[in-house]
Specification:
It is built from eight helices and 13 strands. A hairpin with a 6-residue loop joins strand 1 and strand 2. Helix content is 30%, strand content 26%. Helix 2 packs across helix 3 and helix 3 runs antiparallel to helix 4.
Length: 270
């Protein structure tokens, strides 16, 4: 059976100058799979390459080299995006839309059945605690309310793959419990969740496996029990924070890769 998400030797370089003579390597040969029904955590310090991998997964950028697939098809085939839900940590919604209007808009973009959308909108607004604010413009919403609405938006198409990028950003305790409940429901239904979070307590509570990215390189792939095992011989364990700190110290960020300099002139060759 094909993996829901698969990265094979992904490399991504970004140009540092406008001529492209200097490039920053954000991801350096990363490979891992996420199987159906998994809650998978993607961990790493800031600027580790996590966001770049998510962008490649969501067809927002192309890898410099390597292959990536989404729901069993190459990420270049955008038709599978209709089966994906995505929560961004800093969602930028049209502020003039109402909560209900936004969900109807995103439901139409996902090509979901209009009748199904009409049924799901009130249910989702009730689920995220915004049923009484459904006709208010988003401009009046707090950060936490927008994050709740973002979660509803990600679920409007009943996705097979749910990507959560810092979903607890701006949420109170009740909101964080809501996120955990949504993840638990997705797992119960055999759906797949990719969670990117710095809240280690949330990661420990919900994730089946994790990948740790440091400096654009994959430093660990496996279960949390294996990651927190301090000494395989004694069976002693350590905290997740300690385990991650050790991995984060293993190497600096990937250095910029250098391209061979090329010179051009307007009249003939230099």
């Amino acid at each position: 059976m094909a993996a829901v998400v698969e990265f094979e030797e992904i490399v991504k370089d970004y140009p540092v100058d406008w001529l492209g003579r200097r490039q920053l390597r954000a991801v350096a040969g990363v490979s891992f799979r996420i199987e159906a029904g998994e809650v998978f955590g993607l961990l790493g310090p800031n600027r580790a390459g996590k966001t770049t991998l998510v962008k490649i997964l969501l067809s927002l950028c192309r890898p410099t080299s390597g292959q990536a697939s989404r729901l069993g098809r190459p990420v270049a085939e955008r038709s599978t995006l209709a089966r994906v839900g995505y929560v961004h940590e800093n969602q930028a919604f049209p502020r003039y839309l109402t909560a209900a209007g936004l969900l109807n808009y995103y439901g139409a973009l996902s090509l979901a059945n209009p009748e199904d959308i009409q049924k799901r909108v009130p249910l989702l607004l009730e689920q995220v605690g915004l049923a009484d604010r459904s006709r208010e413009p988003i401009a009046r919403f707090s950060k936490g309310m927008i994050q709740r609405l973002s979660l509803a938006q990600a679920l409007i198409n009943d996705p097979e793959l749910l990507v959560l990028d810092e979903p607890n950003e701006g949420l109170d305790l009740t909101g964080r419990q809501l996120v955990r409940a949504v993840i638990a429901e997705q797992r119960r239904r055999g759906r797949t969740v990719l969670l990117i979070s710095h809240m280690l307590s949330e990661v420990q509570e919900v994730c089946d496996r994790v990948a740790v990215i440091v400096g654009g390189q994959l430093k660990f792939l496996g279960s949390l029990a294996t990651l927190t095992l301090a000494d395989p011989g004694s069976g002693a364990s350590r905290s997740l924070e300690q385990a991650l700190q050790e991995l984060y110290q293993q190497g600096p960020a990937v250095e910029p890769s250098q391209k061979k300099k090329r010179f051009f002139c307007l009249r003939g060759k230099s």
